[in-house]
Design brief:
Elements lengths: L13 H12 L4 H4 L3 H6 L2 H16 L14 H4 L1 H12 L35 E9 L12 H19 L6 E5 L10 H9 L11 H6 L10 E5 L4 E5 L5 E9 L2 H16 L8 E2 L3 E2 L11 E8 L10 H7 L4 E4 L13 E6 L7 H21 L11 H13 L1
Antiparallel strand pairs: 1-5, 1-8, 2-3, 3-4, 4-5, 6-7, 8-10, 9-10
Helix pairs in contact: 1-4, 8-13
């Protein structure tokens, strides 16, 4: 994006005035912090419009932590002078850092002998395990810049891919669409069932950050989810990324969900006419810079009654952060922990780390976290592990 025919704009104009104020009032808003007016003025009109669209969520929501979303698959590369600074500060890497994707566990530091990530070896019972990745198709705008027509067309393209998955025994299932008039349309009652079973995502309109970014627009058009027959493989369509592809099960061997997800990705990405958006420097392209690189999140639900005995996850977060782990409620970000102290635990890193390193980091992080839980004294409560998961499994069986 060059400079041809571009008129310089001063900070007193429109969004730039808001950005100037937020730089002072909310220095933790990374997009606004690294928004450089001189760089903005160096862009052509298309570039200026694109950059402002990327940071709109940040200047409309001053309390944002990240404050920006990519709008086009090439934004991270075309707007690199901006995004490289945001990425460097958030992910704690150099501005010229380059990401490498690698799913092979061979040679990964910290991998147990034999390469099996077996939670029972850590003294843990079967837990609810989940691995997901965000993916976007390279021939569509990212969700924040999509029109209603884009969303419907992207869903239609994915339905052709789902026909291939349906024919494969290990991934066969059905698609549930929220788009009115779609062949696989489901009514509101069925949708609520899927949400209650943690299979489908909620309407994003209530999220002011996603709404400002345009990601929540045109609901429910182009939204849906593919669910395998065994309910352990799910693809969300039309959420924060075009696709959120996930494998989950209650078990003890993390390799099982990791390997199944990789196999599914290989099937989808090798379909004729369907390719995921990538960056030569940044790996897999995602709407939010926090997920860039691998787009991967690997997690388990684990009861931590001793670290949560005050009824909150405050202590658990204090312990987990230095271990490179994030703590969430069992329903995702900004949700409460389980009544028995069950938390969602995952490695924090997504960028400049390989997929194999993430799943191994989860295993080793859980080993250290369990030791801290035991230090707090009393029974660790692992005999009750997954009690909330049983309820989820019952709901899934009802839907099935």
């Amino acid at each position: 994006m060059g400079c041809a025919g571009s008129k310089a704009v001063t900070p007193g104009d429109g969004p730039l005035a808001q950005i100037k104020k937020i730089k002072k009032s909310h220095p933790g808003n990374l997009a606004i912090k690294h928004f450089d007016v001189a760089y903005y003025n160096s862009l052509d009109e298309e570039g200026k419009k694109g950059l402002l669209q990327c940071v709109k969520s940040g200047y409309e929501n001053a309390d944002s932590g990240m404050g920006c979303y990519a709008m086009q698959p090439a934004d991270y590369d075309n707007l690199k002078p901006f995004f490289s600074k945001v990425l460097a500060e958030y992910h704690k890497v150099a501005e010229d850092a380059k990401h490498v994707n690698n799913w092979s566990l061979e040679g990964v530091e910290g991998l147990p002998e034999g390469g099996v990530l077996d939670l029972t070896a850590l003294g843990l019972p079967a837990l609810s395990m989940r691995v997901r990745v965000g993916r976007n198709l390279k021939d569509f705008p990212l969700p924040g810049a999509m029109t209603k027509e884009d969303r419907v067309n992207m869903e239609a393209k994915m339905c052709k891919a789902f026909d291939v998955l349906k024919a494969k025994e290990e991934f066969g299932g059905r698609y549930h669409s929220l788009t009115p008039g779609h062949a696989d349309f489901i009514d509101d009652a069925k949708y609520k069932e899927l949400v209650a079973a943690h299979i489908m995502f909620k309407d994003m309109a209530a999220d002011s950050y996603l709404a400002s970014a345009g990601i929540a627009s045109d609901w429910p058009h182009g939204r849906g989810c593919y669910v395998s027959s065994d309910q352990q493989f799910v693809i969300w369509v039309g959420e924060e990324d075009h696709l959120r592809i996930m494998c989950m099960k209650k078990g003890s061997v993390l390799n099982e969900v990791f390997d199944r997800l990789k196999a599914a990705l290989d099937v989808v990405n090798n379909l004729e006419g369907l390719s995921f958006a990538t960056s030569p420097d940044y790996g897999m392209v995602t709407s939010c810079p926090t997920n860039l690189g691998t787009g991967m999140r690997a997690s388990v639900h684990i009861p931590l009654p001793n670290l949560t005995k005050d009824g909150t996850d405050k202590k658990a977060k204090e312990i987990a952060k230095p271990l490179g782990l994030s703590v969430r409620g069992t329903g995702g970000e900004h949700t409460p922990i389980g009544a028995d102290g069950t938390c969602d635990i995952s490695p924090s890193a997504r960028f400049c780390i390989t997929e194999a390193q993430i799943i191994t980091a989860l295993y080793n992080g859980l080993k250290l976290l369990k030791a801290e839980e035991d230090k707090e004294g009393g029974s660790s409560g692992y005999d009750a592990a997954g009690s909330s998961d049983e309820d989820v499994l019952k709901k899934i069986e009802e839907i099935k």
